[in-house]
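To: structure desk
From: M.T.
Subject: fold request, one chain
Message: Could you run this one when you get a chance? Sequence is below, nothing fancy, just the single chain.
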Amino acid sequence: MKNFSSWLIAMFAFMFWGFRLVGTTLYSIGIDFMFVPSNMTMEIALLFITFICICFFIKRKLLASTIYLFAHFLYYGPAFYGNMMSIIDGTFDSSMAMTVLFNFFGLILPIAAEFDVLLDKGRKLNPTDKKTDWFYKNKDYDRKLDERADKNNYRTL
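Reply: Done. Structure tokens follow.
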């Protein structure tokens, strides 16, 4: 992860995960927080899946970012769609605003992570580093070194 955008996406994903973890914990205790999990069992499962996927997303694994995308779309997608329909119908109230915001971030972060891994995949497989490529990818230097090594005339006693 050489890009600043990759680090930002990973940091925001961890912060969102931590925020959801705190919110779910407080909701299970009975303390009101900014949002209410729509399904407590799915929320806990999503927290575990998200943590594992973010760790592998940092390692630039495409499968992890795809699982992260699908899991979040399955959980946040229907809720976000329902909230958008309530806005269109005019039944939206101010208490739903934070839920819409969290659902929106729950959908945007995996999309950004997926695009980041897809766009960065080629650079991680064949990275170019001008400081070391002249040595490691220079066949002429290898041939000169081999010829020079074969002409050693050291005597052993």
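Reply (cont.): DSSP finds six helices and no strands in the chain. Let me know if you need anything else for the meeting.
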